[in-house]
Amino acid sequence: MSGLLYHALWIGLALLAIAAASGWLSRRSRVRETRRLHAEEALEALAQYAEWLAAQRRPAFKGDRIDPGAPLAQVRKLQQASFPELAPVLVQLLEVHARTVDFLWRQQLLRVRDPEAWLESDHDARFMALWREHCGVVHGLAERLRERAGELLVDAQPESVFPA
After folding, report:
1. I want to staple 44 with a disulfide (CB 3.0 to 4.6 A). Which of 103, 130, 152, 156 is the partner?
2. Residue 164 forms part of a structural domain
3. Residue 69: is it exposed, middle or buried by C-beta count within 10 angstroms (0-12/13-18/19+)?
4. What's the domain range around 71?
């Protein structure tokens, strides 16, 4: 009987090890899938944000999108949930966003108060300089998201917003 008990214990330990390995692999797979989905959502939100910012080049600034459903807020939420290591890059994006919104508000005020001074202010060149800075940060963030997420189901970066 002791031989049978000995083999049963080894089989039990083997089954326990298999169950632990299976649980670990399952969790790892779920985490990887969640990160991939969050990366896709974040890339789509970045594309929406870039489209919104590109639309602000037109003369009538409609204000900053600070509602909770705004693309930048969504990127921040997803970064905090799945990509805490990307916090420094997101801070760079938020800094560029703050400078751009400040510039747009100032231009809007100048346009309303003194249209001639606004026309002479070279607003388009200054906006394009901020846009290039924005594109650099967004491209860096998008690349890091792709690296961290692995293979994505869709290319969430339209070429019109993020040219290669």
Report:
1. 156
2. no
3. exposed
4. 35-149
Q: Is residue 30 part of a domain?
A: no
Q: How many CA atoms does the CB half-sphere of 67 hold within 13 Å? A: 3
In this structure, is residue 160 part of a structural domain?
A: no
Which residue is it, tokens 């409609």? Answer: 62
State the DSSP code for 154.
S
* Closest to 68 in 3D by CA, of 59, 60, 81, 77: 77
Query: In order along the chain (164 residues), what is the average pLDDT of each group of 10 residues?
Result: 85 91 88 86 88 76 59 89 90 92 87 82 84 91 83 50 45
- Looking at the 3D structure of the chain, how many domains does it have? 1
Are the CB atoms for 71 and 52 separated by under 8 Å? yes
The pTM for the full model equals 0.71
One-letter amino acid at 71 equals P
Token digits of residue 143: 């690349």
Residue whose C-alpha is closest to residue 143's, from 78, 70, 86: 86
